[in-house]
Amino acid sequence: MLAKRLHVQLTEWKPNDYSESRDHDHELEWYLWFEGRLAYSLFDRGPSDLVPLPGAFRDTRTGRLETRPTIYPLVVGNRFEVRLVAIERDGPQWLDPDDRAKGEFFIDMDKDPPVSTWRIIAADPRNTDLNVEASFRINWLDYVDTDEIVEPGPPRIIDDANYPYPWGDEVMVFEHWLGLGRKAALKLTGENRFSRREFLSFTGTPGRPGQLKRMVQDVYRFGTAQIGVANDTVSSVYVPRKRPGTLTVKLHAHDFGDPRFAEGAGRYFGSTGLYNLSEFGFDDRVSAVEVTHTYPKPTSSPVN
Predict the structure, then answer these.
(1) Cα(167)–Cα(3) distance, rounded to whole angstroms?
(2) Confidence of residue 303 (pLDDT cuts 50, 70, 90)
(3) How far apart are CA 28 and CA 220, in angstroms?
(4) pLDDT of 18 above 80
(5) What pLDDT, on the 0 to 100 scale, is given for residue 15?
(6) Within the chain, what is the greatest distance between any pair of CA atoms?
(7) Which one of 93, 111, 142, 250 has the lowest number of neighbouring Cβ atoms within 10 Å?
(8) CA nearest 5: which of 151, 160, 105, 140?
(9) Lowest mean pLDDT among 14-23, 32-41, 291-300
(10) C-alpha distances in angstroms, 103 versus 68, 106, 263?
C-alpha cells in the first residue's frame, strides 16, 4: 500500500487535571492514534500532585524514559484524524472505576504542511474531571510502499514503476514542498506540444558494438496560464519514470512570452523523483515549465 511515513516529534505532555488531583497515587495510560492506527502509548504512575518532567515520555511498549522522542506513524491520506485517549486508575475497580477521556481532530497537510506544531487534549467534562494534553511537531514525511497497511479490494495488476510515489507517470507541480498543497498534472498531449523532432541515436559503447536507433523528441511547454498552480507559488515538482523513453523537466522564472525569458533563471531536473525547490533556490519562482520526452520511434506493424 502506498502511504506516507510521518516524522513526528513528541514535545510535551501534561495532565491538566486528574479525576482526584490531591493526596493519592494514580496509574495513567494514554494512547495516540493517527488515521486509526496506534502510533504511541504512554504509562505514568505516581503522586497526582506531581507533574511530569518537560519533554519526558515513558513508552508503554519498552518501558524506556525518553526525552522528546520521534515516532513514525503511517498515513494514507493528506488529511487524517489524530486521536488521544487517556485512562486513569486510582484504586480497585469496585472502589474507583477507570476514568476515561478522549480528544480528536483532523490535520490537513495540504493546508498545514510540515513543519507544523499541534496540541491535542483528551477530556470528557460530562463524565470525568480527567484532562490530559499532548503536544507534537510534524517535521517531515517519506513516501513509502508498505505491507503494514493492507490495500482494500481483490488483488490486481499494478504498474509500480514509479513507486513509492502515488502520482503515476505524470509530471506534477505542487503548491507546497513534499508534494503537498494544491497540485496540477502537466499533460503531455498534442495541445501542449511545442515541437517534435526525429534523430538517430547510436546505442553502442566503446569496445561494444551497438546499433542506430531512430528517436523522437517531443517538447511540451506550459506557460503561466497552463501550469494549473498560481504563478510563483510552486514549491515542489515530481518527475516520473516514463515508459518508453525518458523525461526531463526545466523550470523557468519567467513566462515564455516575457521579454526577460531568455536571460531569466532556470532549473533543470533529469532524474526521477520528488524535488523540493527550496533546496535548489527556486521556491515560489516558477512561471513556466518545459517538459522534454525522448523515446524510440514506434515501428510500423507490417500489413498482410
Answers:
(1) 12
(2) low
(3) 60
(4) no
(5) 84
(6) 95
(7) 93
(8) 140
(9) 14-23
(10) 21, 11, 55
- Taking 80 as the threshold, does the pLDDT of residue 88 lie above it? yes
Residue 91 has pLDDT above 70, yes or no: no
Closest CA to 202 of 186, 216, 213: 213
Q: Among the ranges 30-34, 205-209, 299-303, which has the highest mean pLDDT value?
A: 30-34
Q: What's the start-to-end Cα distance of the chain, in Å?
A: 45
Q: What φ, ψ does residue 207 adopt, rounded to 5°?
A: 80, 0
The more confident residue out of 206 and 198 is 198
Interval 64-86 mean pLDDT = 95
Q: Are 170 and 152 in contact (CB under 8 A)?
A: no
Listed residue (142, 165, 130) closest to 241, CA to CA = 165
The Cα 304–Cα 160 span in angstroms is: 36
C-alpha cell of residue 228: 494549473
Q: And the C-alpha cell for 172?
A: 506534477
Condensed to tens digits (0 to 9), the pLDDT of residues 130-154 reads 889 999 999 999 999 998 888 777 7
